[in-house]
Design goal:
- Helices cover 48% and strands 0% of the residues.
- It is an all-alpha fold.
């Protein structure tokens, strides 16, 4: 939206932002239509102005976000992460990349890499099925990074709480930096 102090302009912007169907029309002859002479003059001035400011109209973005949210709400995938990251959008939460990888499980984990044929199995080198929580609470190879994890029924709430707890966020960031740096130690051996 353009910044303006004009209440009329703000009202028009709000109407455009909240309306999904906008139709533009052209008045063939503007004689007798109040304001059209001035509009015509301003339009001519605008097309000859070489330093015009380019701006993005937020309307399509709002529609996209609404559809995206509806698909997320109605979807069946990603339910375990739904409570942690409930609202879609382009807002930056300022979460470290590693924290997001930990929450959604899309990171340097054999279970994730196995899905794409980048790892021979979905197990950690310790032999257990590999998950972000496995590294954070069970694996003896990452003992110094272990966290106190909750019971299964409280995992979603715990995941949500760690996003606001800086020491836990830092520990998870360190863990996820450690995993790829010790890839040979943490990934199970390829069968021969």
């Amino acid at each position: 939206m353009l910044k303006t102090n004009s209440p009329i302009a703000r009202s028009i912007q709000n109407s455009m932002y909240n309306t999904h169907n906008i139709r533009l029309g052209w008045v063939r002859a503007h004689v007798g239509y109040l304001g059209n002479e001035k509009a015509d003059e301003l339009a001519k001035e605008a097309i000859t102005y070489t330093e015009a400011e380019v701006f993005t109209v937020a309307l399509p973005r709002k529609q996209c976000e609404t559809r995206w949210q509806r698909r997320r709400d109605d979807g069946i995938n990603g339910r375990s992460k739904y409570e942690v990251i409930k609202k879609v959008g382009l807002r930056n939460h300022n979460w470290p990349r590693q924290l997001i990888q930990f929450i959604i499980g899309h990171g340097p984990f054999p279970s994730y890499l196995f899905r794409f044929g980048k790892h021979p199995d979905n197990c950690c080198a310790c032999g257990q099925p590999d998950t972000p929580l496995h590294y954070a609470s069970e694996c003896h190879l990452t003992l110094s990074y272990h966290l106190r994890c909750p019971a299964d029924q409280h995992i979603e709430a715990w995941m949500k709480s760690i996003t606001n707890h800086r020491p836990l966020t830092n520990k998870i960031t360190d863990l996820l930096n450690f995993i790829p740096s010790q890839e040979d130690l943490l990934k199970s051996e390829q069968p021969e």
